[in-house]
Amino acid sequence: MQKSTILVIEDDADTLEIIAAALTEAGYEVSAGKDITMLYGIEKQPPGLLLVDNWLSGDKTGHDICYQLKQNPATAGIPVILISGTRNLEATAARCGANGFICKPFDMSELLNMVAKTYWSKMVGKTLV
After folding, report:
1. pLDDT band at 128 (very low <50, low <70, confident <90, very high)
2. For the modification 4-aspartylphosphate, which residues carry it (predicted)?
């Protein structure tokens, strides 16, 4: 089974670097960036998973991005995990159709466990509960 890329969008450079390094060290192929330009071409080359900060610089939020992806049949199957220090992140994730959420500050093992559960469920075609 060929692995797909995990796309990480996080506007805090330090957090982005830490997440990308941890995922790479765990054996994932990672594409990472600080803004929504990372989404260009997502329909043609969908990632295996999108990790997105809920509060990005600019006019789009992570939950806006997630909602739009989930409404588009070409991208609806891309698993999305929201990351944020926002209160009520669980409710926000549910409203936009995210497959999961991780609250900041997070433990790296928590992040890796959520990624593994979501990513590999998608890769083997199982629905998350």
Report:
1. very low
2. 53
